[in-house]
């Protein structure tokens, strides 16, 4: 289900990290330039990185990026500079070290020991509050710290992996008897447009002091797109009085390429939280340019019997309609990735290499900028119009959700590619 149509996302300004395999290469660390995947294990074995003395031998032959992500930022910067030098002469690189994106399989790029999902968008919590409670007031702690919960790391999957509709307990809205709880396939399956922060350097809280936001980027390896799928009906019942469990634990999808903080650095932007509504605790105080100007979008690709919106013959989704649902920007997040790290470690929590920290749904304040169907449909009260004239309240079996993100102009060449997943019927 991987598309080769994102070449412009992957210029020399990007050079992301992932894990790939092919008919001639075992799973190993890789990077991507336009639509060419470069096998870093093969490059290292041929001596291309010998001058970087702090880079352990054979590290790129690993089937995850954890060992590499844990290295100091100085090593990451040196490897990036070397790759930019080598790949500026891509044609001279031996064919044995590279393959077209259509000829490789992309794997989960990192082993994820822990997953914490935050809710960093003021727009999202206000939009969701209006939809569910008819009250846009944020939770009482929102302006004091980034709120969040612990998710299920074992069900994080790589883009292209199908998602099975979960079963669970929820109120039967079709039953005239009030508050009738039933068990069955979710009737309110939703997506959430998020960014995922990948922890690089680990942190041991044995020092007795957490990480300050101003120092937190040292511990961040990079970013991925994250679709934190949600069963709204299951989630709605179990969140009284605790946080989400089975309504969120059945699957979360990340994009296969980790975009490094070095690649994102030119796109720093001030977020709305750069001027706090309250006096922040010292460890959460942040520089003004705390966010990245990442423009994110989400589409629903769905079966269609009309020609409207359909992919052309021979294209990846021939016979299906492609409906653009929303475009939003990560620069609007109230809390930054640094503040997420600072808050998590302020209580005694450690960080482990590969930990995934979700930003929560990235939403704007206007129609067409909402990062989930809960917001777009006003809590299921107003259908979303699709390109072929059909409608959606929540996702149907066979729907494919595709998320993409890019920074700067198309010529800048820094993007995330895609994060994609298809909904399969529930297993009874």
If you had to describe this structure to a student in words, what would you say it looks like?
By secondary structure, the chain is an alpha+beta fold. The protein contains nine helices and 26 strands. The protein has helices at 40-45, 66-69, 73-87, 122-133, 232-238, 246-249, 261-264, 337-345, 373-376, and strands spanning 18-21, 28-33, 36-39, 98-100, 105-107, 115-118, 148-150, 156-158, 163-164, 167-171, 181-185, 189-190, 193-199, 220-227, 230-231, 252-254, 259-260, 268-269, 291-292, 294-303, 320-329, 356-358, 384-385, 391-392, 400-407, 414-424. Strand 25 (400-407) and strand 26 form a beta hairpin. The model has no long low-confidence stretch (mean pLDDT 94).
Distance between the termini: 26 Å
Strand content: 25-35%
Structural class: alpha+beta
Question: Which whole number gives the mean pLDDT?
Answer: 94
What is the molecular shape? globular
The radius of gyration over CA amounts to 21 Å
- Low-confidence regions: none
For the biggest sheet, the summary is: 8 strands, mixed
Please identify the oligomeric state.
single chain
Number of strands: 26
* Fraction of residues in H or I helices: 10-25%
Number of helices: 9
């Amino acid at each position: 289900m991987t598309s080769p149509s994102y070449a412009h996302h992957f210029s020399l300004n990007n050079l992301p990290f992932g894990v790939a395999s092919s008919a001639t290469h075992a799973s190993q660390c890789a990077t991507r330039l336009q639509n060419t995947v470069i096998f870093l294990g093969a490059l290292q074995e041929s001596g291309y990185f010998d001058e970087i003395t702090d880079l352990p031998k054979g590290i790129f032959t690993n089937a995850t990026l954890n060992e590499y992500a844990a290295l100091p930022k100085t090593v990451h910067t040196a490897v990036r500079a070397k790759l930019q030098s080598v790949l500026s002469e891509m044609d001279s690189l031996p064919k044995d070290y590279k393959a077209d994106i259509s000829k490789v399989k992309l794997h989960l790029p990192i082993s994820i020991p822990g997953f914490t999902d935050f809710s960093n968008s003021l727009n999202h919590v206000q939009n969701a509050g209006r939809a569910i409670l008819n009250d846009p007031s944020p939770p009482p702690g929102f302006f004091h710290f980034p709120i969040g919960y612990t998710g299920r790391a074992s069900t994080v999957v790589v883009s292209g992996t199908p998602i099975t509709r979960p079963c669970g307990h929820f109120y039967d809205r079709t039953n005239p008897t009030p508050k009738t709880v039933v068990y069955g396939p979710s009737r309110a399956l939703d997506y959430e447009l998020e960014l995922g922060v990948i922890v690089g350097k680990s942190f041991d809280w044995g020092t007795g002091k957490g990480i300050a936001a101003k120092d937190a980027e040292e511990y961040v390896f990079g970013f991925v797109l994250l679709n934190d799928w949600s069963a709204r009906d299951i989630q709605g019942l179990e969140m009284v009085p605790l946080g989400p469990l089975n309504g969120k634990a059945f699957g979360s999808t990340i994009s296969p390429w980790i975009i490094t903080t070095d690649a994102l650095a030119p796109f720093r932007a001030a977020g709305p939280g750069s001027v706090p509504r309250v006096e922040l605790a010292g460890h959460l105080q942040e520089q003004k340019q705390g966010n990245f100007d990442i423009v994110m979008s989400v589409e629903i690709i769905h079966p269609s019997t009309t020609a409207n919106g359909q992919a052309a013959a021979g294209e990846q989704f021939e016979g299906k309609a492609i409906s653009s649902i929303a475009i939003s920007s990560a620069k609007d997040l109230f809390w930054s990735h640094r503040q997420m790290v600072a808050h998590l470690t302020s209580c005694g929590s450690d960080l482990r290499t590969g930990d995934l920290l979700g930003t929560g749904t990235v939403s704007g304040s206007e129609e067409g900028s909402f990062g989930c169907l809960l917001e777009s449909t006003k809590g299921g009260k107003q259908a979303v119009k699709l390109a072929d004239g059909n409608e959606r309240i929540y996702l149907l079996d066979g729907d494919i959700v595709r998320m993409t993100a890019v920074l700067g102009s198309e010529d800048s060449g820094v993007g995330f590619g895609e994060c994609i997943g298809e909904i399969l019927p529930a297993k009874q």
